[in-house]
Amino acid sequence: MVPFLRILGIETSCDETAAAVVERDAEGHSNVLSDVVLSQLDEHSAYGGVVPEIAARAHVEALDELIEEALKRANVSLADIDAIAATSGPGLIGGLLVGLMTGKAIARAAGKPLYAVNHLEGHALTARLTDGLSFPYLMLLVSGGHTQLILVRGVGEYERWGTTIDDALGEAFDKTAKLLGLPYPGGPAVERMARDGNPDRFAFPRPLVGEARLDFSFSGLKTAVRQAAQEIAPLSDQDVADICASFQKAVSRTLKDRIGRGLQRFKTEFAATFSATGSATSEKPALVVAGGVAANLELRGTLQALCDKNGFRFVAPPLHLCTDNAVMIAWAGLERMATGAAPDPLDVQPRSRWPLDSHAQTLIGFGKRGAKA
Ligand code: KG4
Ligand code: ZN
């Protein structure tokens, strides 16, 4: 039987420094004792994006105190912790080094096992902590660094069904905002402007729509936005709003097509597991969304409607667990411990690139900024 486990999680892969203490009982129920996140947004916003050196320095300055705070809020000491889980990739290498070295140091000093966690696995397993989801399910990760559709078969068993061949979706929002003179991060700004805009004024491209493969492409969309903006410059507020609304509509239609195909494939592959016979295993299949772009209400609405139409459950964990946090890293560590997986050796190295699916091919153009999740 799996024992009761308590773990300290550390996350430093991008621009959030985070620490958390999470428990898992023998039945797989979770209990979040603390969840501390320090965003570096203010430090990066002047540059219109994350600056790796600034991020790494900010992690060094904040992490020790954040871990202390996480232990204090959880009302535990290191002696009460069974293991340490630290993100070791993918991400910005400076930040990863800070978090993983700190994790190793604590593991060594306190004599606890260390789990080096894949950040994407943290996102992938969060819905089991928040919604008790069982395997298999589909996960759409849409953040500033990734746009991936992943089949989650089990702990450590992932298949990447689709990924972006160029920009991540959050990146497309950020670049669109930047060229329209909107603040960073661009997603919330574009969404806000789009509310007052005409989504039908510009017919922006919907890349890869209609293709059988499940990949994504957003750089052509961004280029079309730039051209439209240049043609009608100088832009009035209404122009900006119309461009934002038309951009969001193009993204929404693209996701509808791509994810719609993913749901069909899932239904075909798992027809036996999710048959309508009323057996114990015949609950509805689920699509889980994660990453900062999941905050977008229009895109959420599109995905919800798509799930309703296809007989899927749409699972969107609370936003603070969709964006980068240490609870998901702690939980991924707990899930691995619960399978009986051995801890990692203390000489484990951080990996800026680390696909969840070890068989997945690197696609052309992917990863220009793809270190970030
Ligand atoms: O997961 P996240 O917080 O951080 C990392 O990428 O690591 O995602 C941030 C991304 C940014 O690109 C931001 O513009 C986007 O999520 N984002 C949104 C919205 N809120 C944040 N994109 C579209 N609509 C939003 N409301
Ligand atoms: Zn992430």
Provide the fold topology.
Elements: E1 5-11, E2 16-24, E3 30-39, H1 41-45, H2 52-74, E4 83-89, H3 93-110, E5 114-118, H4 119-131, E6 137-142, E7 147-154, E8 157-163, H5 169-179, H6 186-194, H7 219-231, H8 237-269, E9 286-290, H9 297-310, E10 313-315, H10 319-322, H11 327-338
Parallel strand pairs: 1-4, 4-5, 6-9, 9-10
Antiparallel strand pairs: 1-2, 2-3, 6-7, 7-8
Helix pairs in contact: 2-3, 4-11, 5-6, 5-7, 6-8, 7-8, 8-9
The structure holds 5'-O-[(R)-(carboxyoxy)(hydroxy)phosphoryl]adenosine (KG4) and zinc ion.
In short:
Keywords: Acyltransferase, Cytoplasm, Iron, Metal-binding, Transferase, tRNA processing. The protein is α/β, with parallel strands linked by helices.
End-to-end Cα distance: 34 Å
Tally of separate helices: 11
Q: Any low-confidence stretches, pLDDT <50, length ≥5?
A: 367-373
Q: Any idea what the CATH architecture of the largest domain is?
A: 2-Layer Sandwich
CATH class of the largest domain: Alpha Beta
Number of strands: 10
Domain count = 2
Q: Approximately how much helix is present in the residues?
A: 40-55%
The CATH homology group name of the largest domain: ATPase, nucleotide binding domain
Estimate the mean pLDDT confidence: 93
Strand content: 15-25%
Radius of gyration in whole Å, from Cα?
21 Å
Sheet having the most strands: 5 strands, mixed
Structural class: alpha/beta
- Large-scale geometry: globular
Cofactor: Fe(2+)
Organism: Rhizobium phaseoli
Keywords: Acyltransferase, Cytoplasm, Iron, Metal-binding, Transferase, tRNA processing
Protein name: tRNA N6-adenosine threonylcarbamoyltransferase
